[in-house]
Request: fold
Amino acid sequence: MVTATVDPHLGSRGQASFIVPKGTKASRKDRSTKKHGIRASHTAEVVLDECRVPGRLLLGGKEKLDAKIAKAREGAHTGAKQPAMATFEATRPSVAAQAIGIARAAYEESARLREGPRRVRKPITRTRRSPSCLADMITEIDAARLLVWRAAWSPATAVTPTPKVSQSKLKAGRVAVWVNRARHPDPRRLRVHP
Reply:
């Protein structure tokens, strides 16, 4: 399934979803994305270059799309959110929680190495992996975790979840990357801070 913009002037209100069968002419999988975690979920760029699909593969049908576009052009409410956006919003807290798990594992590895034998501690000391660095790591992880909890709780209380859910995923992702970089023995990689 591909969600594409059929009317650029309408932004996300001018989108439609299509089924693009595997092997469709002018579609190809490009490079795969390397990730810090969640490697069981394959992520790659899909390139559609002058790709044409029959109208029967438009989800909901052409008449429904035409009516939706006409309403959007008039400024009227077009109904429910696109399925892709609704899916993103529903999965953001769980993706953020996975990032927290990745950050926590990196923190625990850093703490373990700091307390290890002298020969293991040496490269860690070069990165100035002091107790304050570990304290910064766990503080950022806890702050991100609280945002994730708030995002997961807000839909249950009928509060509009979008900003909170987006904030939690943004913070948790940044923290996971930063903690992973902070535990690396190369001090040049410590520049990014969440």
